[in-house]
Write a structure and sequence with these properties.
Helix content of chain B: over 70%
Largest sheet of chain A: 6 strands, mixed
Strand content of chain A: 15-25%
Strand order of the largest sheet of chain A: 14-18-13-17-15-16
Helix content of chain A: 25-40%
Order of helices and strands of chain B: HHHHHHHHHHHHH
Shape of chain A: globular
Shape of chain B: globular
Structural class of chain B: mainly alpha
Number of helices of chain A: 15
Number of helices of chain B: 13
Radius of gyration of chain A: 23 Å
Radius of gyration of chain B: 24 Å
Largest interface: A-B, 51 and 46 residues
Structural class of chain A: alpha+beta
Oligomer: heterodimer
Chain lengths: ~525, ~325
């Protein structure tokens, strides 16, 4: 499957002058209300200035993007009927549909595309998505040409999912700050569903867009996104049938429990683009952790199989490097750091940290993100006695809430910390940020908080980011991953066990690489 | 002092109190660790330094604390509670949207607690050594000692899961029709468990209070006189004893209004009741200063108004206070 994905990605993106084949979906029937349950609270509904699941799920229903991707990483037409990359890779031309309109009836033009790219470039936290865009030319209302300062193949994935919503210039172009624009809480888009009501922290109601530019779609009449206070009550509501679709289901006990429900399907498909990694980060400025051998010793000092099988009940899968398995850029051939206490001990001896009278070599603190007991605290609690076996005295440091943890880790005031970081489809978007020397930024969470700097890695990432030949690009990323895994600025533990639980009554469930962070225009009730 | 003067004096006190509450809350919240800009950036999926600076600037967080305090006080006194950092909406809108749900929950729970509590207390006082009295004492002790969130979760397990007669959480089912009667009945259905959870704690206290108070009054001379005059037991209980016995209940109920509102924070969180409590909880986690301050301001207003109402009710129930004797 992965190989197929790679070939498909190459064929549909890079050769790219032909429009790809449309999504292969079953013919549905109209009607019905889809109830999506979530514990994530949306600040507002405009993904152009806000990342995260809470905004992305409703945002991708309200706003359409130029492209969409299927489950095999194939680019598909969406607002753009067809697209092409110039031979030198310095521009991408999008040919827009001529029948697409915003929910207020105004037509979508290339001006809106240009405005959206500029807005996202200036306001979205993922700066690398459109940083190389020098201008967007609009030779006619249905052609937009993105001009780059350097070759930028990551733009394709950055034009899908929730990453480049086409926002109406006639609304957002009024001079107000798009980050706090009042329209963010009552947006006008062009996606399959129109905004109806938003009660922050409670629910979002979306209604079918009868003038949707894809004929006969969407099938559903309405989507209601309901907030639940915690995963337990959401699982309970799903089990009872109150919720028809529960995306980003992560607690392994709930996964196992919902799998027993005969009326539900529980699948881990639909998260390939997210690439959610759980890792143990090292502050490489720490007097002990600055030595690569110490970091490697810790990586050898614990058993990932125990975490996956005992702590996660076999529901998660191991992570082995900076790119999650399931991505075409994944590197399978890296050091796996299987449990090896002898090797860990000898590495620490070699590094010159002998055991003291109390049998300990040195002491390190370990932080973790509060609120996710299973993925964070539970693993941290396992690591404490486990690392004692190799002579490291671990002190667990709880944070009362997320801001406290973010301040510690973002401020580089930590020794080791558990962390959860997403790939966000293209490595340029979600992977580079945690490794580039230039991205060591104090006070910024999910930057290079490990203070890791390797010029070779920087060069490889830079080269891979601009490589148009997909096979070469993959090879470059795999080489970079090998070095990173060996340098171990963090050690990879597992991929978050994100699952989607949905009613068997649903046809065409959202299982593309973006899952529910993509238009649900194919979904229907059987 | 007549009621009008009382109200005027109380309003003056209230104004000073609110001013003190505003300043204290502002300072307390700014002492707490955690930067709202980082939370917003975290929610956004990370940010650059420029973006963090931009967020701080747009919410005035780059100003010194005393400037922020002065701006806040100035705005609040003109009725502007500011813009929520987290929800991208005016705080006043958010609070007004939620305050109704909290008032509904608190008032229902209080009425339930006062009426049923007093009734149980009266029943228990009829035969202080009987089974009913023992049961009331038992229920009171359990109700009062059990942590509110535990009672809530227990009720959810019992009545929303094992015997699913009530919904698990929320205030109404958004998938149902929004016509007036369907919505009203649905809200009442959703209200039962949260109001019961919040009410049980106070019910226990009022039952104990009413029982003790009734016992004391039933042993007093004027009741003995009434009995010797041949007044019926029902009349003695309802007309002569209860009216006096209820005074401490009214006093405590008024004083406790503040604690019921804070109890509501826990209950709302357990049941996802969309009131000020859940908003406060979410805002605290998000370091959404303007929203937290707005909620604290509103809840202090609620408590002050409730105390004022208690004073007035007290005067109506007890004529001795009204006449100044």
């Amino acid at each position: 499957m992965r190989k197929f994905g790679v070939l498909a990605l190459t064929a549909t993106i890079l050769a790219g002058t032909l429009a790809a084949t449309p999504l292969q979906a079953e013919e549905g029937k109209p009607g019905g209300t889809l109830v999506i349950g979530t514990t994530q609270k949306a600040r507002h509904l405009n993904p152009a200035v806000q990342s995260g699941i809470a905004t992305a799920v409703p945002g991708t229903q309200i706003f359409a993007t130029p492209l969409r991707f299927d489950a095999d990483w194939n680019a598909q037409p969406y607002l753009a009927e067809s697209w092409s990359t110039s031979d030198d890779g310095m521009s991408i031309t999008l040919n827009l549909r001529k029948n697409a309109k915003f929910h207020d009836g105004k037509p979508i033009t290339s001006e809106d595309v240009a405005f959206s790219v500029e807005t996202v470039k200036a306001n979205h936290p993922f700066k690398t998505m459109f940083e190389p865009v020098s201008s967007v030319e609009t030779p006619d209302p249905h052609t937009a040409i993105l001009k780059f300062t350097k070759s930028h193949p990551a733009a394709y994935l950055a034009m899908s999912g929730a990453l480049l919503p086409i926002i109406p210039k006639h609304i957002y172009g009024d001079g107000q700050d798009p980050k706090s624009h009042p329209a963010n809480s009552a947006p006008v888009g062009s996606g399959p569903f129109k905004f109806k009501e938003f009660k922050p922290g409670q629910y979002i109601v979306l209604e079918k867009n009868p003038d949707y530019f894809i004929e006969g779609k969407p099938y559903l009449d309405k989507i209601i996104i309901k907030n639940y206070k915690d995963p337990t009550s959401l699982a309970l509501a799903t089990d009872k049938g109150e919720v028809t679709l529960y995306p980003f289901l992560a607690p392994t006990k709930d996964i196992a429990r919902l799998k027993k429900n005969d009326e539900l399907v529980v699948t881990s498909d639909g998260y390939a683009a997210v690439g959610p990694l759980n890792w143990l980060a090292f502050n490489t400025q720490n007097q002990y952790l600055k030595d690569k051998r110490v970091r490697q010793a810790i990586a050898y000092g614990f058993d990932r199989n125990f975490i996956i099988n005992a702590l996660h009940g076999g529901q998660s899968q191991p992570a082995t490097g900076p790119v999650a398995p399931g991505s075409p850029f994944y590197a399978p051939d890296v050091e796996k750091y299987d449990l090896d206490l002898d090797k860990a001990n000898s590495l620490l001896d070699e590094a010159g940290f002998k055991r003291g009278a109390d049998d300990m070599r040195f002491k390190l603190s370990l932080d973790y993100i509060p609120g996710s007991a299973e993925q964070q605290k539970g693993i941290a609690e396992y690591l404490k006695p486990q690392l004692k076996k190799i002579g490291i005295d671990v002190e667990l440091r709880a944070s009362p809430d997320f801001p406290t943890w973010a301040k510690r880790v973002g401020g580089h005031e930590f020794d080791m910390s558990m962390d959860i970081v997403f790939n966000w489809a293209d490595p340029v978007i979600g992977v580079h940020r945690t490794y580039l020397c230039s991205n060591i930024r104090k006070g910024v969470i999910w930057s290079n908080t490990q203070s890791y700097c390797n010029k070779d890695v920087d060069a490889l990432l830079e080269k891979a980011g601009g490589e148009q030949d997909q096979a070469k690009r993959i090879a470059l990323y795999q080489e970079a991953q090998k070095i990173i895994v060996d340098d171990a600025p963090q050690t990879f533990i597992n991929v978050l066990p994100y699952h989607t639980a949905y009613s068997k009554k649903l046809g065409n469930p959202p299982l593309s690489i973006w899952g529910t962070m993509a238009p649900l225009d194919e979904v229907y009730f059987k | 002092m007549n009621i009008f003067m009382l109200v005027v004096r109380r309003f003056l006190h209230a104004f000073l109190l609110i001013l003190a509450v505003l300043v204290l809350n502002f300072l307390l919240i700014h002492i707490a660790p955690g930067d709202p800009a980082e939370v917003i950036a975290g929610e956004m999926g990370g940010a650059t330094e420029e973006m963090l600076a931009d967020i701080r600037k747009s919410y005035g967080l780059d100003q010194p604390v005393y400037v922020q305090l002065a701006t806040y006080l100035g705005k609040t006194l003109t009725g502007d509670l500011g813009q929520s950092f987290f929800y991208n909406a005016p705080v006043l809108d958010l609070v007004l949207d939620r305050v109704g749900a909290t008032i509904l929950l608190v008032v229902t729970a209080l009425i339930f607690a006062i009426v049923v509590g007093t009734l149980l207390g009266v029943l228990a006082s009829h035969n202080p050594k009987g089974i009913v009295s023992g049961l009331v004492t038992l229920v009171s002790v359990v109700g009062y000692s059990a942590p509110i969130f535990w009672t809530g979760m227990l009720l959810v397990i019992m009545f929303a899961w094992l015997v699913p007669v009530f919904p698990i959480s929320g205030m109404f089912d958004i998938t149902l029709s929004d016509d007036f009667w369907t919505r009203t009945i649905d809200i009442a259905h959703h209200l039962v468990l949260p109001a019961l959870t919040l009410g049980i704690v106070y019910l226990a206290q009022y039952a104990r209070l009413a029982r003790a108070s009734m016992l004391e009054i039933l042993g007093s001379d004027y009741i003995r006189t009434a009995r010797s005059k041949g007044v019926s037991e029902l009349s003695i209980y309802t007309r002569h004893a209860l009216r006096n016995a209820i005074l401490p209940v009214v006093t405590i109920a008024g004083l406790q209004f503040g604690s019921v509102v804070s109890g509501a924070v826990l209950v709302e969180t357990v049941f996802s009741w969309p009131g000020l409590g859940t908003l406060a909880f979410d805002s605290l986690l998000a370091r959404d200063f303007p929203t937290i301050l707005g909620i604290l301001f509103f809840s202090s207003l609620l408590v002050i108004v409730a105390n004022l109402v208690t004073d007035v009710v007290y005067r109506i129930v007890d004529p001795r206070i009204r006449t100044g004797n």
